[in-house]
Amino acid sequence: MIKKIYTIESGCFNPYQNMGLEEYLMYQAGEDECILYLWQNERTVVIGRNQNAWKECRTKELEADGGYLARRLSGGGAVFHDLGNLNFTFLARRCNYDVDKQTDVVLEAVKRLGLSACKSGRNDITINGCKFSGNAYYSTGDCCYHHGTILMHADQEQMEKYLHVSRQKLESKGVESVRSRVINLCDLMPELTKERMAVVLKEAFAGRYGLPVEPFPGERLEGGEIRSRAAAFASWEWKYGRQIPFSDEISRRFSWGEVQLALKADGGRISELILHTDALDTQLVTALTEALPGTQLTKAAVAEAFRQIPAQNRLQASMKDDLERLLGLLL
């Protein structure tokens, strides 16, 4: 049961420092606490944990303009951050982690501005059918977080400049471009500021949880550990990941997300496997990429390897079936 709720705002616009603090806070949330963390990144493309950086982002253009590429811990698709966007993160232990309740905070905050929003699809919050907030989720052990964007006056020209969205994904959304499926809240409320948005989020947080909001205690912030986590997010290895000289590659779009699968074969067995996807579920992808190397390149052997990996829910069961069939096309 939650007995204390805290808020903390970052005054830094560097994505690696902000994500380092986010990860640190996840482990700091006590058994009876929930933390609301508010933060902004400057000219940043943030890709999901299992995405291919080069396919999701025009990295040369971004870097030439002084921007940042960042990879988050959670799954989902690539998003563009600038100072016209406010990010939120709810951090709590698993026993107190409630995505619906946390989403209600965002919906109530927007309502306090006189706007009516609703949850749409697997992870979007929309107004009039247009997305202003994309959400993603992460957990490890007993620690969880739910984070998302709030587009206020984001630069949509830069969003289209740096994001490379596949035609399949746009067609699945029934739109022609990235810009046509998003909306800035300032389009509906020109006087909205980041400060006002932060205030209504905190008010809605207090109202939904029925508790007073307190500042997160500064003495619980360990600078050295936060800097160490930030350095890991800034590393080339984390941002870009490894590339393999693959033998075969195949891609598909499913109801749960888009997939690019690449494998390297050696001696009739899978020696390396990479799965790039914008799926929100990251656990099954990790399990598959760890379990399949060493498997014989036969449908029977691959099917048996898939059977050994348990599905924790209906989504994972669907993902397993689809990925097994997809890999089977390469055999």
TrEMBL record:
Coiled coil: none annotated. It holds the Pfam family LplA-B_cat. GO terms for molecular function: ATP binding; lipoate-protein ligase activity; lipoyltransferase activity. GO terms for cellular component: cytoplasm. It catalyses: L-lysyl-[lipoyl-carrier protein] + (R)-lipoate + ATP = N(6)-[(R)-lipoyl]-L-lysyl-[lipoyl-carrier protein] + AMP + diphosphate + H(+). InterPro entries: aa-tRNA-synth_II/BPL/LPL, BPL_LPL_catalytic, Lipoate_protein_ligase_C, LipoylTrfase_LipoateP_Ligase. Pathway: Protein modification; protein lipoylation via exogenous pathway; protein N(6)-(lipoyl)lysine from lipoate: step 2/2; Protein modification; protein lipoylation via exogenous pathway; protein N(6)-(lipoyl)lysine from lipoate: step 1/2. Keywords: ATP-binding, Ligase, Nucleotide-binding. It comes from the Bacteria. It is an enzyme of class 6 (ligase). One of its GO terms (biological process) is protein lipoylation. Residues 30-213 form the BPL/LPL catalytic domain. Transmembrane segments: none annotated. Its EC number is 6.3.1.20. PANTHER family: LIPOATE-PROTEIN LIGASE, LIPOYLTRANSFERASE 1, MITOCHONDRIAL. This is lipoate--protein ligase. It comes from Eisenbergiella porci.
